[in-house]
């Protein structure tokens, strides 16, 4: 198990559910700001929050032509990309993830449990700011993949066996904070390596030898080599026939219109396996029929529109602007960016309503402005565990 980094967590929160990547605009970013290597943690927090929302959230949602899960959060529910960048930072979901994570890390730094590398922080900001549009549409792999400064901003200082509140503070790539339930206290645990040795490198896979009963690190598999569901070289997919235990590393080489029912992972970049054939994606315009299920539970409507499904549990509907306060909703995905779908049961239609202030009674976090419904059933701010 590779310990998640803080940057990976935040980017995952923003990009979860994106079906694939492809971009409709190859223009370059006009961001020319250069961040200094002596940047403070507070300065980094402010700058990263702005960049994460403006670029890897709003700009991505409006410039990259892809179907997205949950409308990529609320980013496509605005009337423009500029409005998204202006208003989205006040959204409870963004505040919960960003403010909570950075406040927690600041406390860990002050307690001497976490180290902050200002040079890598500046390098990460400059990397994100300098992405052109074609790179931005694949920002998750650009920022999270391989060796880059975004992965080296924080390093844990808490040793194995010592008390922890989060995995980021545990020393070592193979360490994590083991907790019970929602407890604030945990213990840093170091994962066992491969066999009797250390964990494998990024270009290796831990392979079990059935004859000797031992594990050892082996090079990632090349095209045509046997694989065990994973362990192929970059750009290859491990294709395992139904019912089989092993597969073969293959390159995605199926073109548009080719059959993919048995190998959906082999459609070429920018294509999706839809109804058994590799197909390209195009936004659905206002007033036209949309089908969320067709795109892997993702919304295919143009930016500024949402797929208004006809009833709870349905996946088909029509692309139209988000519903305003008091308008009917089958789920929260159809409501305007700062509203939720208020209904008495999941199998009934509800109405879009304003999110509730702290102290208001709640049943789900989505009802709250803070995006957190506490254990006592009231909207509240998500508390940071003290180191």
DSSP strand tally: 18
Give the integer mean of the pLDDT values. 83
Principal-axis shape: globular
What is the H/E order? HHHHEHHHEEEEEEEEEEEEEEEEE
Percent strand equals 15-25%
Number of domains: 3
Distance between the termini: 24 Å
What would you report as the Rg, rounded to the nearest angstrom?
Answer: 23 Å
Order of neighbouring strands in the sheet with most strands? 3-5-4
User: Helix amount, in percent?
Assistant: 10-25%
Structural class by helix and strand composition: alpha+beta
Identify low-pLDDT runs: 1-32
Question: The biggest beta sheet, please?
Answer: 3 strands, antiparallel
Give the helix tally: 7
Keywords: Signal
Organism: Persicimonas caeni
Protein name: Dickkopf N-terminal cysteine-rich domain-containing protein
Describe the fold and architecture:
With 387 residues, this protein is an alpha+beta fold. It folds into 3 domains: 6-157, no CATH class; 192-250, no CATH class; 289-354, Ribbon (Lipase, subunit A). It has 7 helices and 18 strands. It has helices at residues 6-15, 41-63, 81-87, 92-110, 118-130, 133-136, 139-144; strands at residues 114-116, 154-156, 163-164, 175-179, 186-190, 204-209, 214-219, 226-227, 237-239, 247-250, 271-274, 277-280, 289-291, 306-309, 316-320, 328-329, 339-342, 350-354. The strands form 7 sheets. The protein has a 3-stranded antiparallel β-sheet with strand order 3-5-4, with no helix packed on it. Strand 17 and strand 18 form a beta hairpin. It is globular. The chain starts with 5 loop residues before the first helix and ends in a 33-residue tail after the last strand. The model is unreliable at 1-32 (pLDDT under 50).
């Amino acid at each position: 198990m590779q310990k998640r980094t803080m940057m990976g967590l935040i980017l995952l929160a923003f990009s979860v559910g994106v079906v694939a990547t492809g971009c409709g605009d190859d223009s370059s970013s006009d961001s020319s700001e250069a961040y200094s290597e002596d940047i403070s943690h507070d300065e980094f927090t402010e700058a990263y929050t702005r960049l994460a929302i403006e670029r890897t959230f709003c700009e991505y949602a409006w410039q990259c032509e892809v179907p997205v899960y949950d409308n990529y959060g609320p980013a496509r529910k605005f009337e423009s990309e500029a409005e998204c960048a202006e208003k989205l930072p006040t959204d409870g979901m963004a505040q919960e993830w960003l403010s909570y994570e950075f406040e927690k890390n600041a406390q860990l730094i002050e307690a001497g449990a976490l180290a902050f590398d200002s040079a890598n922080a500046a390098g990460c900001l400059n990397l994100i700011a300098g992405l052109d549009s074609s790179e931005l549409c694949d920002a998750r792999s650009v920022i999270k993949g391989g060796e880059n400064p975004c992965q080296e901003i924080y390093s844990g200082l808490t040793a194995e066996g010592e008390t922890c509140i989060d995995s980021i503070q545990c020393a070592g790539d193979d360490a994590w904070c083991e907790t019970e339930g929602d407890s604030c206290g945990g213990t840093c645990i170091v994962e066992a390596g491969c066999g009797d040795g250390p964990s494998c490198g990024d270009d290796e896979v831990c392979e079990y030898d059935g004859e000797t009963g031992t594990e050892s690190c082996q090079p990632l598999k090349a095209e045509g080599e046997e694989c065990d569901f994973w362990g192929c070289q970059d750009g290859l997919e491990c294709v395992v026939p139904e019912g089989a235990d092993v597969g073969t590393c293959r390159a995605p080489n199926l073109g548009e219109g080719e059959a993919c029912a048995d190998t959906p992972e082999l459609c070429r970049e920018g294509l999706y396996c839809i109804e058994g054939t590799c197909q390209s994606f195009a936004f659905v315009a206002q007033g036209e029929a949309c089908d969320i299920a067709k795109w892997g539970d993702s919304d295919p409507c143009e930016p500024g529109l949402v797929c208004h499904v006809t009833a709870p549990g349905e996946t088909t509907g029509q692309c139209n602007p988000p519903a305003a306060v008091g308008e009917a909703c089958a789920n929260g995905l159809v409501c305007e960016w700062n509203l939720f779908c208020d209904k008495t049961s999941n199998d009934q239609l509800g109405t879009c309503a304003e999110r509730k202030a702290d102290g208001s009674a709640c049943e789900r976090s989505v009802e709250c402005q803070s995006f957190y419904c506490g254990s006592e059933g009231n909207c509240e701010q998500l508390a940071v565990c003290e180191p």
